[in-house]
Design brief:
Length: 235
């Protein structure tokens, strides 16, 4: 945890907060924090700054905070991702929050197992927890938006055109396609399919809507590897 995130619920007054639970445990066991220590703090959805530990016990830590610096800018990138396996989704959520992706669309497709949509990993509190872990790691305060789409065709025909607008649209897909760009010099919508890629019908529908298919190279990548690879290329 490189940034201690807090909310209005943690405030004791205008300058002091009190935290417990996982955050307190991390401060005590990992950082070996003690009164007088200075730590990085950030108000969820707000500014970042420094905090001075006033008191720390087994029950709580009281911290005097000053937060007047804005969080880092988000990427000009919106990600559309076929819903992956639950364990992989958790890792991807952390990665996206760390990298500064502002919005994630989780999409159904032919190769997505139906059971994935019943997974506890999609519970709002679970998604929030993994996104918070990514923010704490990277030093950011603004949660990415996560939207789910249970039906492929209505999303592509009715929702996707409005998302694209005049933005560049890239479909990372296995095959003989031009290499994925290596910059993020314009607002971009990125689409990544499930393990094995989208089926031909889905690829055609995405291309009809304006997505340009690009390649990540000759190797077949796991979804989480493909996400990290594309983010590395673009950002």
């Amino acid at each position: 945890m490189n940034l201690l995130l807090f909310t209005d619920e943690d405030r004791l007054d205008a300058r002091r907060i009190a935290v417990g639970g996982r955050r307190l445990q991390h401060m005590r066991q990992v950082h070996r924090a003690s009164p007088g220590d200075s730590i990085r703090v950030g108000e969820l959805g707000g500014n970042m700054g420094r905090g001075t530990i006033v008191e720390i016990t087994a029950q709580r830590a009281v911290i005097e905070v000053s937060a007047d610096a804005p969080p880092p800018a988000k990427l000009a990138l919106e990600l559309i991702l076929a819903l992956p396996r639950p364990k992989m989704l958790r890792r991807i959520l952390r990665t996206l929050a760390e990298c500064g992706v502002p919005r994630l669309h989780l999409l159904n497709s032919y190769r997505v197992e139906k059971s994935y949509w019943q997974s506890p990993a999609l519970a709002p509190d679970t998604i929030r927890d993994y996104l918070l872990q990514g923010l704490e790691q990277s030093g950011d305060t603004v949660l990415p938006d996560v939207v789910t789409h249970r039906f492929f065709r209505p999303f592509v025909e009715d929702t996707l055109p409005g998302l694209l607008g005049d933005r560049r649209a890239l479909l990372a897909h296995p095959g003989d396609y031009p290499p994925c760009p290596r910059d993020l010099d314009e607002p971009t919508v990125l689409v990544i399919g499930p393990e094995g890629g989208f089926i031909p019908y889905e690829v055609a529908k995405l291309q009809e809507t304006g997505c340009r298919a690009v390649s990540l190279g000759p190797r077949v990548l796991r979804v989480e590897t493909a996400v990290a690879s594309v983010l590395g290329r673009l950002a």
